[in-house]
């Protein structure tokens, strides 16, 4: 039996809509995951089949900048019911995944 997932509607993307100055400096993107785990894909091409994969769990921080700043990336799926129990028991966080992304434009 596999892990139940919600498939994302987003394809891999690269952050090329930021200011030229920000991109030229290679300023990092900082991403904080809260809630359910997610399958995060990244690579040198738009093709998700060629991408590397990492699982981001609640509390994980992902930072990419410098030469890797323009990598293709995206969430392929969210893995249901993987959030730490205290989030539901002690907070008002709803089931699912919350991602906070910080960048300097």
From TrEMBL:
Q: Which cofactor does it need?
A: Fe(2+)
Transcription keyword on record: no
* Alphabetized InterPro entries for the sequence: Alkb, AlkB-like, AlkB-like_sf
Keywords in UniProt for this one?
Dioxygenase, Iron, Metal-binding, Oxidoreductase
Domain of life according to the entry: Eukaryota
Q: Which family does it belong to?
A: Belongs to the alkB family.
Q: What's the protein called, per UniProt?
A: Alpha-ketoglutarate-dependent dioxygenase AlkB-like domain-containing protein
The species this protein belongs to is Platanthera guangdongensis
Lineage in the entry?
A: Eukaryota, Viridiplantae, Streptophyta, Embryophyta, Tracheophyta
